[in-house]
User: Which sequence fits this backbone?
């Protein structure tokens, strides 16, 4: 569903003008995502309000706590000077879901959603949520009970079972998340390991959950500093080990309870992956508490985005991984990686079998959607013949994103039927780049009746028949090397390697409509 929602969101905001760009971003780097999810338990949600009042309520909640905290801090300073650490946290009263303030409701919804994704249901009888507001920079740390700070040996270390942050503004100063825990550091394995790290740039109302046992922290950077960087942080504790917390200071007497559709959490599976050639100097980061080394990566991301005129916050997170850690990816992903590598070198090895196999699936597009697609294509074309998109091949095509049905297609068909079929075929959750989706019309009357032998520009090509076999004669896709013709009936899909030489067999009567999707694996080592 998120694919659909994201596209809707982008379309509404006019942020981009190329739909394939959105799709690419949305589907990009599933491999990196899979690995990083496993290692850091990272999940990103964006919040969208359907109601301005609710958004204002949230901001009021945050301002209220900040004010309160400021006053408490001044009193604390008067009393203790700088000698004692000031920290103010609150307990979220999950038993009173109806009465929660907007801020607490948002935290609670994120907790429930993210824990569920990590197969760890929030249970009110067992768990407690602690939250606090941050507008300061702390050194790179692991999340734990504040007792750690009082014990210089660091022997008492109580850690929550789940944690996350919600950003309250857009910002160029990211959160840095490493792959390392306190244990890794104690065992001194940090510098020897080839590792990846993550930068997450604050976006207003974005929630990012990750394993707080991994070293992380906000990176301050004068060059890109904006006015404020306010973050709501929360920890979920098993009740017995929860540290002391203050009662909520937000009104629990909510006369206007928050309704289910007042706001929505949208899965942001946009992970951008970049290569790092040398691992970070973790000794510097941990011992000397300096994160200057990360500034070059911040500069890099900002520069890339300015150049491409893309909003910095499009990506949920940025992953920086060294080539070696990508090779370990190959081990995890297996044979298909090597076949894709061969493909990129334009070579087909004898034992390349997965990528070059042909896969067919029935009932990919429901018949009524097939009909709708054809109908709206014909409406767009009017009395004209369809445009010759690839004139050399005599193929007349209309692009799917020019049709009204695009959104429905992406949510009801692409995400529900097509992606699972691809994953079933190649046995791995790959990342994809969609090059193009269009509808081809083969029509005897206009001399666009077939396609001469060719290879597609794509890694894989999907063909889906949109009308009944009985409406035309001959047709189908012919594969030259093995002299095989595959013809599809309405709603059926064929997946084949784009680099395999093939023709669109000429039809001798009637009209044939077929949807074509060109896709690439996003994979590089
Ligand atoms: Fe933290
Ligand atoms: Fe083709």
Assistant:
């Amino acid at each position: 569903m998120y694919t659909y929602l994201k596209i809707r969101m982008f379309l509404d905001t006019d942020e981009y003008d190329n739909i394939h760009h959105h799709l690419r971003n949305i589907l990009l780097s599933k491999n990196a995502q899979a690995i990083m999810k496993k290692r850091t338990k990272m999940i990103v949600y964006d919040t969208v309000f359907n109601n301005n009042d609710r958004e204002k309520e949230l901001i009021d909640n945050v301002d209220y706590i900040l004010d309160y905290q400021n006053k408490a801090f001044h009193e604390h300073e008067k009393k203790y000077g700088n000698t004692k650490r000031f920290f103010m946290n609150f307990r979220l009263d999950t038993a009173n879901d109806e009465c929660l303030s907007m801020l607490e409701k948002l935290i609670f919804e994120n907790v429930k959603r993210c824990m569920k994704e990590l197969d760890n249901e929030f249970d009110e009888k067992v768990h407690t949520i602690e939250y606090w507001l941050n507008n300061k920079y702390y050194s790179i740390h692991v999340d734990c009970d504040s007792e750690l700070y009082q014990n210089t040996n660091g022997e008492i270390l109580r850690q929550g079972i789940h944690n996350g942050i919600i950003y309250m503004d857009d910002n160029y100063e990211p959160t840095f998340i490493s792959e390392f825990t306190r244990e890794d550091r104690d065992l001194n394995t940090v510098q020897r390991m080839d590792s990846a790290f993550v930068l997450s740039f604050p976006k207003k109302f974005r929630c990012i959950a990750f394993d707080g046992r991994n070293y992380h922290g906000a990176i301050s950077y004068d060059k890109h500093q904006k006015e404020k960087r306010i973050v709501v942080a929360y920890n979920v504790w098993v009740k017995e080990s929860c540290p002391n917390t203050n009662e909520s200071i937000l009104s629990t007497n909510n006369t206007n309870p928050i309704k289910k559709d007042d706001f929505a959490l949208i899965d942001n599976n946009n992970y951008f992956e970049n290569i790092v050639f040398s691992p970070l100097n973790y000794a510097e980061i941990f011992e000397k508490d300096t994160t200057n080394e990360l500034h070059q990566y911040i500069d890099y991301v900002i520069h890339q985005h300015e150049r491409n005129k893309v909003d910095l916050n499009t990506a949920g997170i940025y992953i920086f991984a060294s080539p070696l850690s990508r090779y370990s990816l190959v081990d995890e992903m297996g044979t298909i990686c090597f076949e894709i590598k061969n493909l990129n070198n334009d070579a087909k090895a004898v034992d390349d079998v997965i990528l070059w196999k042909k896969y067919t699936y029935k009932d990919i597009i429901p018949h009524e959607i097939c009909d709708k697609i054809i109908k709206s294509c014909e409406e767009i074309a009017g009395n004209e013949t369809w445009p010759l998109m690839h004139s050399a091949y005599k193929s007349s095509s209309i692009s799917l994103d020019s049709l009204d049905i695009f959104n429905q297609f992406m949510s009801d068909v692409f995400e529900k039927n097509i992606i699972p079929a691809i994953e079933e075929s190649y046995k791995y959750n790959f990342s994809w780049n969609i090059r193009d989706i269009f509808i081809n019309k083969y029509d005897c009357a206009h001399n666009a009746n077939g396609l001469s032998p060719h290879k597609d520009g794509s890694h894989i090509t999907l063909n889906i028949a949109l009308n009944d076999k009985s409406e035309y004669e001959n047709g189908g896709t012919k594969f030259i090397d093995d002299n095989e013709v595959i013809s599809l009936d309405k709603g059926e899909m064929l997946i084949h390697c784009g680099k395999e030489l093939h023709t669109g067999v000429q039809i001798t009567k009637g009209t044939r409509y077929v949807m074509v999707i060109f896709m690439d694996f996003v994979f590089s080592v």
About this structure: Residues 52-80 form the longest helix (29 residues). The pocket of fe (ii) ion (ligand 1) is lined by residues 141, 143, 212, 216 (CB under 6 Å). The first strand starts at residue 43 and ends at 49. The radius of gyration is 27 Å.
